[in-house]
Amino acid sequence: MLDLAAHILDIAENSVRAGARLIEIDIDEDTAKDTLSIKIIDDGQGMKQEEIKKVLDPFYTTKTVRRVGLGLPLLADASQRSGGSLQLESEKGKGTTVKATFGLSHVDRQPMGNIVSTLIILIAGNSDIDFFYKYRHNDRQFKLDTREIRKEIMDVPINHPEILKYIRGVLEEGFSEIKPEA
Amino acid sequence: MAKLTIADLKKIKEKVHKEMSLRDGDRRVKVTVHMGTCGIASGAKEVMDTLLQEIETAKVNDVIVTTSGCMGLCSREPLVTVEVLNQEPIKYEYMNPNKMRQVFKRHVLAGEIQTPFVLAKGSEVTK
Question: Which residues in chain B have their CB less than 8 angstroms from residue A69's CB?
Answer without folding.
Answer: 37
